[in-house]
Structures are given as C-alpha cells and as structure tokens.
Amino acid sequence: MQKLIIAFVVVVLSVMSPLASVEAHAFLVRAEPRVGEQSDKVPTEVRVQFSETVQPGASSIKVFDASGKQVDKKDTHSDRTNPAVLCVSLVPALTPGTYNVIWRATSMDTHVTNGHFRFEVVGPQRAAGSR
Fold first, then answer.
1. How far is CA 60 from CA 28, 29, 74, 90, in A?
2. Distance between CA 96 and CA 39 in Å, rounded?
3. Dihedral sign, CA of 16, 82, 56, 29?
4. Contacts of residue 119, Cβ cutoff 8 Å, sequence gap at least 6
5. Which of 16, 50, 66, 75 has its Cα between 20 and 30 A from that of 23?
6. Could you tell me if 112 and 105 are in contact, meaning their C-beta atoms sit under 8 angstroms apart?
7. Where in the chain does DSSP place strands (E)?
8. In this predicted structure, what is the pLDDT of residue 9?
9. What is the DSSP letter of 25?
10. How distant is the alpha carbon of residue 80 from its chain centre?
11. How far apart are CA 94 and CA 85, in angstroms?
C-alpha cells in the first residue's frame, strides 16, 4: 500500500511540475498601442501588460521607427497601480510610420521572456479609410 501511495505522489508531482514552470514566465497579455494597431492617434507611451509581476529594473521596452532609430525615452518603468504592467515614454510627435516594439520581461523568480510587435501611426485620411 505504501508503494502505491508513493507511486501516486510521484505521478501527481510529475504532472504538476510542468504546470508550475509555465506559470513562472511573464507572457504578454495586452499592449497599448495594441499589437498590429493602425491609428491616427500618436501615442505618448507604450504599455505592456504581462501575465504576472515583472522586475522593472531587469526588464525593458524599446521602440524603434522603420529606419531603426530608437524613439522611446529609455525610461522603462512599472505602472504605479499594476506591477504586471511595464511602460516606456515615447519622444514627442511621432510621425506616420511603422514602429517596432521589442520587450524583455524578467519575472519575480528571474525567468526571462522576450518578444516584439508592431504598431502603425497613420495619417488621418488613411485611418478614416481603414475603419
């Protein structure tokens, strides 16, 4: 009977172990501007919400224009009300074009994830035509 209980515990732990490691990574949940968004509104910051709390000092958001010029203010910080949200300010008056956001998130247990997405600032005429 004791061997059966030990076997059962081993099976349960082996099934639960991968689930615990999945929860230990901060994945992108939503972003503002939204992933792939086309808008005539010029954003003043990029906000990325993750699936769990991240370490702002060990995480980053960088934003580049189509020519590869960095257009953020290099001030990645966490949101005051939600530690799972990172923000970065953008330089004033972005011009119409495609912008690449590259993020790196370090969760509280030091697991690192990274990714990227694009958004586009379009002229008012094009934004009206795409709706």
1. 13, 16, 9, 14
2. 9
3. positive
4. 33, 34, 35, 36, 37, 38, 39, 43, 98, 99, 101
5. 75
6. yes
7. 28-32, 38-39, 45-50, 60-64, 77-78, 85-89, 97-106, 112-121
8. 44
9. S
10. 16
11. 23
Does 5 score more than 70 pLDDT?
no
* 5 φ/ψ angles, rounded to the nearest 5 degrees: -65, -45
The span from the CA of 32 to the CA of 93, in Å, is: 17
| pLDDT for 20 | 45
> By CB neighbour count within 10 A (0-12 exposed, 13-18 middle, 19+ buried), where does 19 fall?
exposed
**Cβ–Cβ < 8 Å for 107, 86:** no
CA distance 90 to 97: 14
Distance (Å, whole) CA 128 – CA 130: 6
Structural tokens at position 57: 């000092």
Computed on alpha carbons and rounded to an integer, the radius of gyration of the chain in Å comes to 20
